[in-house]
Amino acid sequence: MAGLKSVNTPTSQPEEYDLLVLGSGEAGKYIAWTLARKGMKTAVIERKYIGGSCPNIACLPSKNVIHSAKVASYFRRSEEFGITKDNWKIDMPAVRERKRKMVTGLVEMHLDLYKKSGAELVMGYGRFVGPKTIEVTSADGLIRLLHGERVVINTGNHNENFHFPFDCSRNFSGLRLPGCRS
Q1: What is the pTM of this model?
Q2: For the chain, how far is it from start to end, CA to CA, in angstroms?
Q3: Of the residues 32, 69, 148, 156, which has the maximum number of CB atoms within 10 A of its CB?
Q4: pLDDT tens digit string along 155-178?
């Protein structure tokens, strides 16, 4: 995938960025693209789905299939509107192929926007190993160490237990956080 480099050991000096975004979902990709266009060095770290889950497995593919069902529903009722029909059927392989083409097109569009903006897409599993420092392990085992002046956590549709030190005295959210006493 785009942007993968080999780093000898995870204890190497980190590569420096103005902005790191962990997760390529909706908000993070736009901030990375925008700031990269303004000359900042940005990278988006993504484990699996280029563009996040919405264009790949969630929102948009679901809406695509739902739209096909809506068209079928209208067609089923077509005689109410003066339209006759004979021997019609739903071709589910064609419905799935329409959805797959949409997803492929969206992934290609995202890759093109990364390229045009100058933001780097780093495919791999990212985890914090220090303040503003993320270790990224690619699918083929290559490890990169990245440090950002700013870091955005944009991990999206499922929760994750982050294990990094948190100063409970600086919790102004009013939320009860694990490991903090009220």
Answers
A1: 0.75
A2: 45
A3: 32
A4: 875 555 555 555 666 555 555 666
